[in-house]
Specification:
It comes from Aliiroseovarius pelagivivens. It catalyses: oxaloacetate + acetyl-CoA + H2O = citrate + CoA + H(+). Belongs to the citrate synthase family. The chain is mainly alpha-helical. It has 18 helices and 3 strands. A 3-stranded antiparallel beta sheet has the order 1-2-3. Helix 9 runs antiparallel to helix 17, helix 11 packs across helix 18 and helix 14 packs parallel to helix 17. The longest helix is centred in the middle third of the chain and has 27 residues. It is globular, with a radius of gyration of 23 Å. The two termini are 32 Å apart. The structure holds acetyl coenzyme *A. The site of acetyl coenzyme *A (ACO) has 19 residues, from loops.
C-alpha cells in the first residue's frame, strides 16, 4: 500500500511504474510498433517490405535520416560507410589483452567503449558534424570489431575488410575467410545475413535503446553510450535470448522431449522459461519472427539441411506452444530470436556470436535514437525517481555498541 503523505514528504507525487510498462520516456519519429496487430514500421515502412525489397545499408540511411535515399544519396552513404570500415591498428593490442576464451560480447563492449580513446574528433556531442562522423564510424566498424572478436575467440588471424564487397558479404568474409586462402561468399548466406541485420535494426524504446538514451542524456560521448547499450543487450531476457534459445533447442534435443520442457515452462516453482517466446510489446505475433521463420526455411533448404534436428524441435515446439492454453492465454508467441539462431548456426556461427550480431545490427537504431534525442531542444538528463521503502532517519551507532 502506497502512503501518499509519505510520497509528498519525499518531494512530490510521481508515477510508480516498475519495468516502465506504461511510461513513455520520449517522443520519437523513428520506429512504430503496434503490439496488438503485430506491426513494426521503420519511419512508416513495414518491416516485411523492407526485409524483402530493401537492404541493410539503405535501411540504415532510412533510420538515420528519415527518408529512403535517392540512388545518388545511397551511393554516397555507402561510400562514406566503406571508408570507415578499418579499425585503428593499435586496437589489435586491445583485443590481445582479453583471455582467449572471453565471450565476444565482453570484447565488443570493451572495444566499442574504447573507441572514444581512438577517435577524438568524434566525441563532442554538441557538434553535429562530430555526431555524424561518430555514427558513420560505428556503423562501419561494428562488423569489423565483431568479426575480430570472433577470429580472436577461435584463435585465427584477423581478416581485414574488403571494401568492394557489400556490407553483409564483407562481414561474412571477415568471419569465415582464412588469410591467404581463397574464400567465396555464398550470396544466399549474404542475403540471409542482410535480412537478419535489417530485422534487428531498431525496435523503439527497448531496454538497450533506453540505456543508450539515458547514457546519452548526460552528454556522454557516443562510443560510451553505444557500449552501454551493448552491455544491456547482453542479458538473456533481451538480446542474449538468441544464444539462450538455440542452447535450449539443443538441450531439448528431440521432439519427444518437448512436453517435459513445456511443462517446466508452465511450472511456477521452476524458473525455466521457453527462450524465444514472449515479448513485452507484441501480444499477437512478432512480425520479425514471421520473416525469420521463412528465411530459416529458405536458407536451410538452399543449403540442403532442411532435416536439421534443431529446426524440427523449433517447429514442433512452436506448434505445441501455440495450441497450449497457458501460452495462448498469456499471449506468448515466438519472438525474433526464436528462428534467428537456427539461421546463424547454419551459417557456421557459434552461439556466442549470436548476440554480437544482434548488437551489430542494432547499432544503427541506437545511434538514430541517440541523435534524435540530442536534436530535441527540450532534452533533459534522464533521472527516474524511486519509491523509498527503507528506514526513516536514525542516529549513527558507534561500532562497539552495535
Ligand atoms: N516462458 C514461459 N512463461 C513465460 C514466458 C516464457 N518465455 N514469458 C513470459 N511468461 C509468463 C510469465 O511467467 C508471466 O506469468 P504470470 O503472469 O503467471 O506471472 C507472464 O508470462 C508475463 O511475463 P512477464 O515476464 O511479466 O512479461 P514481460 O513483458 O515482463 O517479459 C519477456 C517479456 C522478458 C520477453 C519474457 O516473455 C521472457 O522472459 N521471454 C523469454 C526471453 C526472450 O525470449 N527474450 C527475448 C525478447 S525479444 C528481444 O529482446 C529481441
Amino acid at each position: 500500500v502506497i502512503d501518499i503523505t509519505k510520497l509528498y514528504a519525499q518531494g512530490g507525487v510521481f508515477t510508480y511504474d516498475p519495468g516502465f510498462t506504461s511510461t513513455a520516456s520520449c517522443d520519437s519519429t523513428i520506429t512504430f510498433i503496434d503490439g496488438g496487430k503485430g506491426e513494426l514500421l521503420y519511419r512508416g515502412y513495414p518491416i516485411d517490405q523492407l526485409a524483402e525489397k530493401s537492404h541493410y545499408l539503405e535501411v540504415c540511411y532510412l533510420l538515420l535520416y528519415g527518408e529512403l535515399p535517392s540512388e545518388a544519396e545511397l551511393v554516397d552513404f555507402e561510400s562514406r560507410v566503406t571508408r570507415h570500415t578499418m579499425v585503428h591498428e593499435q586496437m589489435i593490442k586491445f583485443f590481445s589483452g582479453f583471455r582467449r576464451d572471453a565471450h565476444p560480447m565482453a570484447i565488443i563492449t570493451g572495444v566499442v567503449g574504447a573507441m572514444s580513446a581512438f577517435y577524438h574528433d568524434s566525441t563532442d556531442v554538441n557538434d553535429p558534424w562530430q555526431r555524424e562522423v561518430a555514427a558513420i564510424r560505428m556503423i562501419a566498424k561494428l562488423p569489423t570489431i565483431c568479426a575480430m572478436a570472433f577470429k580472436y575467440s577461435v584463435g585465427q588471424p584477423f581478416v581485414y575488410p574488403k571494401n568492394d564487397l557489400d556490407y553483409s558479404s564483407n562481414f561474412l568474409r571477415m568471419c569465415f575467410a582464412v588469410p591467404a586462402e581463397e574464400y567465396e561468399v555464398n550470396p544466399i548466406l549474404a542475403k540471409a545475413m542482410d535480412r537478419i541485420f535489417t530485422l534487428h535494426a531498431d525496435h523503439e524504446q527497448n531496454a538497450s535503446t533506453s540505456t543508450v538514451r539515458l547514457a546519452g542524456s548526460s552528454g556522454a560521448n557516443p562510443f560510451a553510450c553505444i557500449a552501454a547499450g551493448i552491455a544491456c543487450l547482453w542479458g538473456p531476457a533481451h538480446g542474449g535470448a538468441n544464444q539462450a534459445c538455440l542452447e535450449m533447442l539443443r538441450e531439448i534435443g528431440s521432439v519427444d522431449n518437448i512436453p517435459e520442457y513445456v511443462a517446466r515452462a508452465k511450472d511456477k516453482d521452476d524458473p525455466f522459461r521457453l527462450m524465444g517466446f514472449g515479448h513485452r510489446v507484441y501480444k499477437n505475433f512478432d512480425p520479425r519472427a514471421k520473416v525469420m521463420k521463412e528465411s530459416a526455411d529458405e536458407v536451410l533448404g538452399l543449403l540442403g539441411i532442411e532435416d536439421n534436428e534443431t529446426l524440427k524441435v523449433a517447429k514442433e515446439l512452436e506448434r505445441i506452444a501455440l495450441e497450449d492454453p497457458y501460452f495462448v492465454d498469456k499471449k506468448l508467441y515466438p519472438n525474433v530470436d526464436f528462428y534467428s539462431g537456427i539461421i546463424l548456426e547454419a551459417m557456421g556461427f557459434p552461439t556466442s556470436m549470436f548476440t554480437p550480431i544482434f548488437a551489430l545490427s542494432r547499432t544503427v537504431g541506437w545511434i538514430s535514437q541517440w541523435k534524435e534525442m540530442l536534436g530535441d531542444p527540450g532534452q533533459k538528463i534522464g533521472r527516474p525517481r524511486q519509491l523509498y521503502l527503507g528506514d526513516t532517519e536514525r542516529d549513527y551507532i558507534d561500532v562497539e555498541k552495535r
